[in-house]
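Quick start: read one record
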Amino acid sequence: MSRLSNEMRNDKTYQSYIQHIKMIPLLGIEEERELTGRAARGDEDAIQRLVKANLRLVIKISQKYLSPDISLMDLIQEGNVGLIHAVEKFDLNKNVRFSTYAVLWIKQAIVRFVVSKRRTIRLPLKKEELLRKVYAVEHILHQKLGRKPKIDEIANETGCSIYDIELVMSMGASPLSLEAEFSDSTGASFIEICEDSHQCNPEREFLIRSSRNETRSFLKTHLNVRERNVIFHRFRFVDSDVYTFQKLGDTMGITAEAVRQIEKRALNKIRNKRDEFLKCIYA
């Protein structure tokens, strides 16, 4: 609150804005209903009067989201955008005060702005709201219990499942830099131990080709021609196409059931030579 007070006192733009807002009269219930009706028909004057009369509401809501890295005027500006959307979307048939309806739009605009400014990786709005709720409950329980609350205690207090709490808290964790070093004496960084799966690894490529060649050699040694043909096609040693029993049977001129029996016989032969076969795979 002290930071808010300091910003109020020291920010000349904010002080000037506040003085201007104070001069705008508030609306009564009947006047508000008249203006919302005219605004719904596209009356620009009514729209402007509705927006101006509710600027105080934006300031009040914005103050709740103030943080050291975001200025109050930036929050107010984003809240005003949400207020304008509320005017455009409001429906008299909802049977609620315009200010009640506008609160949701103002909060939504401010939260989206805060999220985009603060996080390296943006979260969906609902997840961000849940995360704020979880952190608030966690803080209250910490003060109440005198210790860090457990996940199930937070879940009971918020009415959410343990899975949802754990998921949203993991989303809220700050990303680590690849340049960050471990706390041990090695001085190694994440970038030195994290494998980049998108880059070509000559050693891995060599091992894959070697294992594949050894496996093909094993199958040629222990299976007859027809069995090899079935295994090679069924397990993609020939190409990347998926060969069903029917498709392979049509190619070989036999029935799908015959192909299935041949595969079964070939796999039994491989199982009987299991130790020798594993040497091919992990050569």
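The CA atoms of residues 25 and 49 lie 10 Å apart.
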